[in-house]
């Protein structure tokens, strides 16, 4: 069941809001249905943005028969043929979905998001989504159903555009690793605290960072507690579109270029 606010309704809401939402940016939330009598369940989603593959995570998932939904970019696919073949060899575990062609945020109203250059236009958003679909078809032989852009933030219009193209937007409810920037103990703690119906997001493309170790420990802790892991295509889910309040850019300050006082030398 889907009880999300439609993109159109949210646009009206934002337009009427007294609070400034620069660029009408939304961060879609996603939850899966509770496990009910079968017991608690979560969906583990892992992003392969670019770079390499964290085999610590991939190998543990295979050894423990833990299913996951993996969002891959065309960019990642080009340099990770071996890991991709491992994922393809386990279709019962891994659902491969679209993270775009070149890891570009589906935003046309702001120039950057988290320092990443955005698509900038509906045409570029379409090219990024379709490029990711083509890449998945060619490299993995699968047709994706879900789309998650770089940064998991979107222009509100982009959400409607991508849904019209026939793809569901893959938000999340539990941010496990903050873009693989958190240290292992924190990541482990966050994942181990997952509740029934959570959609966990983490990264599988940063093998040299501490975060991946926390992903491994966290999912093993959940498994030990009896949590079931499901993939996005295997369950019902519900979306929310949460407005992101962006700080307005500061006005440029006039900076004198001449007669700057010299810093005093300290001894
Ligand atoms: Zn990414």
Automatic annotation (TrEMBL):
One of its GO terms (biological process) is carbohydrate metabolic process. It holds the Pfam family Polysacc_deac_1. The keyword Transferase does not apply. Residues 1-22 form the signal peptide. Coiled coil: none annotated. PROSITE patterns: NODB. Keywords: Signal. One of its GO terms (molecular function) is hydrolase activity, acting on carbon-nitrogen (but not peptide) bonds. Residues 40-230 form the NodB homology domain. The keyword RNA-binding does not apply. Residues 242-267 are annotated as: Disordered. Is involved in generating a small heat-stable compound (Nod), an acylated oligomer of N-acetylglucosamine, that stimulates mitosis in various plant protoplasts. Belongs to the polysaccharide deacetylase family. This is Chitooligosaccharide deacetylase. It comes from Paramesorhizobium deserti.
